[in-house]
Every structure is written in C-alpha cells, then in structure tokens.
C-alpha cells in the first residue's frame, strides 16, 4: 500500500506545478497591449506612411489607456506655416475617420482606448502637432 502513496503524491505534485506554471504564463490585457505595441514597432518601424510621414514607433500608454503613434514629418510638409486651422481640422477629421472605419481596432475601441498621433518635425526635432481621439470622438 505504501508504494501507491508515493506515485499518487508524485502525480499530485506534478499537477500542482503544472497549474502554477500555466497561471504564471497568462498576461494581462495591458501587458499584452504593451507587448503588441513593442512587437509592432520592432517588425514594422520605421515605415514610410507617405512621402512626407514616417511611422517611427507605437507605444502603449496606461493613462489614458491607449496607443500613441510616433511619427516624423519630413520634406515639404515639415513646415509649421502649413498648420493652418483649416488644414489641421481636415487632417484631424481624416484621422478620426480612419479610426472609426478600422475594424482591427475594435477590441481596443470596445475598451474605450485613446488613440494619440504625435508628429515630430524631422528638421527641428520639435513636436509638430499632436492629436488624441477618445471614445467620445469615435463612437459618435
């Protein structure tokens, strides 16, 4: 009878270690977003969005929860004088429409993420412009 107790304990210990290792491998949604942003940056960046905009990286932010897209403006668009109120308004409306239509962002929009676009001047290194869209913007 003693020989049966040892294997049963052994199987119990193996099962316990298995459960512990499985539970320690799960990552939170926030950690997953952080990892996905880092992996996206490593695989996709820098990437030419168009002839004057380069996507440098994407980061996950805890507060407000969301993604920040870091981009560089270069060439003929790298001119602060082009940032007229009308031009900025049209540009922001285009970005917002992209968020509204992008089905790959659905799980993030359902959680109320904020999407921030930060544009840096290639010539000066200064922030060219920055715009953020929260659920109050893209759900309407």
Q: How large is the radius of gyration?
A: 23 Å
- Whole-number count of domains: 1
CATH architecture assignment name: 2-Layer Sandwich
User: How many strands appear in the DSSP assignment?
Assistant: 5
Question: Helix share of residues?
Answer: 40-55%
Q: Which structural class do the helices and strands define?
A: alpha+beta
Ends apart, CA distance between termini: 71 Å
CATH topology: GMP Synthetase, Chain A, domain 3
Report the sheet-strand fraction.
25-35%
The major pleated sheet works out as:
5 strands, mixed
Number of helices: 5
Shape: globular
Strand order within the widest beta sheet: 1-2-3-4-5
The helix/strand series, from N terminus to C terminus, equals HHEEEHHEEH
Nearest-integer average pLDDT = 86
The low-confidence parts are 16-24
Which CATH class?
Answer: Alpha Beta
């Amino acid at each position: 009878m003693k020989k049966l107790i040892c294997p049963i304990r052994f199987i119990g210990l193996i099962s316990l270690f298995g459960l512990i290792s499985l539970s320690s491998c799960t990552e939170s949604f926030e950690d997953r977003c952080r990892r996905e942003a880092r992996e996206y940056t490593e695989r996709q960046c820098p990437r030419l969005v168009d002839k004057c905009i380069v996507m440098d990286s994407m980061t996950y932010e805890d507060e407000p929860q969301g993604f920040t897209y870091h981009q560089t403006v270069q060439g003929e668009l790298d001119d602060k004088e082009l940032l007229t109120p009308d031009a900025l308004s049209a540009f922001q409306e285009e970005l917002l429409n992209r968020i509204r239509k992008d089905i790959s962002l659905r799980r993030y929009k359902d959680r109320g993420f904020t999407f921030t676009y930060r544009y840096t001047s290639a010539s000066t290194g200064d922030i060219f412009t920055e715009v953020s869209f929260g659920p109050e913007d893209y759900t309407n």
